[in-house]
Amino acid sequence: QVQLVESGGGLVQAGGSLRLSCAVSRRTFSTNRVHWFRQAPGKEREFVAVIRWNGSGTYYADSVKGRFTISVDNAKSTVDLQMNSLKPEDTAVYYCALRDGSFTKDPRLISSWGQGTQVTVSS
């Protein structure tokens, strides 16, 4: 069974940057897609970004487009999320998730999740 471990969260001021990393424990295939989701207190888990393990097929939520960049580091077996120009509304627990096949914005369709990492953006 695959294990996903997120790291890189923390506290940052508005306008700042953070880089999240998702370490994947097993060999993946080019058709696998790694998603990032986030969940703020009292809100549903929402899609942030997705990428195929071969580095293609990137897609972003409108709320983060132009500010966040998702990428694959094959040497480290990680999927990273570079977050720039952070806003207080980006505050949430960020989760990575692995799915075979097409990407989805519906978290109920994904069974492999990491434990999450907290991102807090102060105003």
- Portion of residues in beta strands equals over 45%
Distance between the termini: 40 Å
Instruction: Enumerate the spans where pLDDT stays under 50 for 5 or more consecutive residues.
Output: none
Fraction of residues in helices?
A: under 10%
Morphology call? globular
Number of helices: 0
Pattern of helices and strands: EEEEEEEEEEE
Averaged pLDDT: 94
Q: How many E-type strands?
A: 11
Gyration radius, in Å: 13 Å
Characterize the biggest β-sheet: 7 strands, mixed
Specify the structural class: mainly beta
Task: Tell me the layout of helices and strands.
Layout: E1 4-7, E2 10-13, E3 18-24, E4 32-39, E5 46-52, E6 59-60, E7 68-73, E8 78-83, E9 92-100, E10 112-113, E11 117-122
Parallel strand pairs: 2-11
Antiparallel strand pairs: 1-3, 3-8, 4-5, 4-9, 5-6, 7-8, 9-10, 9-11
Characterize this entry briefly:
The chain is built from no helices and eleven strands. The mean pLDDT is 94.
Explain how this protein is built:
With 123 residues, the chain is mostly beta strands. It has no helices and eleven strands. The chain has strands at residues 4-7, 10-13, 18-24, 32-39, 46-52, 59-60, 68-73, 78-83, 92-100, 112-113, 117-122. Strands 2, 4, 5, 6, 9, 10 and 11 form a seven-stranded mixed sheet that branches. The mean pLDDT is 94.
